[in-house]
Design goal:
By secondary structure, the chain is mostly helical. It is 75% helix and 0% strand. The chain is elongated, with a radius of gyration of 25 Å.
């Protein structure tokens, strides 16, 4: 229950963050496009288009993270390898951005970034790892059933021989 709640909360927070960051990039892009001066020889049109592209990229990345967490919350299963890698990347990015934003924006923005970081990491930690090998109780049960039927001893009963 707690896993689903945390993953769902992280999903909602990431969607809200994506919307805010896209809005910020649109405002910055329009501001850059409306200026008529060059900054260090850069073209204002190129800078505004790059700002729009950056906003779309970060928004798409955060929406991907939100979708992966939503799938994990709905299925109540741990994210797969790809999803874990993407979410770990998002957590790392939020850690770095939190360190940068404290100097640029202030401590409240740092607190928001760390809250999002904590939600992502908690969502990753609450879901147990899903090993690719079969569960050990099933293997032990099958091994005990094989011995009872007169089969060969299981791997736990084999003793190594020394020369």
């Amino acid at each position: 229950m707690l896993r689903r709640l945390v993953a769902g909360a992280a999903t909602l927070v990431l969607v809200a963050e994506a919307a805010v960051l896209v809005l910020v990039h649109v405002v910055l892009g329009r501001t850059t496009a409306s200026q008529s001066m060059s900054i260090a020889g850069s073209d204002p049109d190129v800078m505004s288009k790059a700002t729009y592209a950056m906003g779309a990229g970060i928004g798409a990345f955060l929406l991907l993270c939100a979708a992966l967490l939503a799938v994990a919350a709905i299925r109540d299963r741990a994210p797969g390898r790809f999803a874990r890698a993407v979410l770990i990347g998002a957590a790392f990015t939020h850690g770095i951005l939190g360190a940068l934003v404290v100097g640029l924006v202030g401590w409240p923005a740092f607190a928001v970034m760390m809250l999002i970081l904590c939600l992502i990491v908690l969502a990753l930690m609450l879901f147990p790892d899903t090993p690719d090998t079969p569960d050990t109780p099933k293997a032990e049960g099958a091994d005990a059933a094989g011995r009872a039927a007169g089969g060969s001893p299981g791997p736990a009963e084999v003793t190594p021989t020394s020369p």
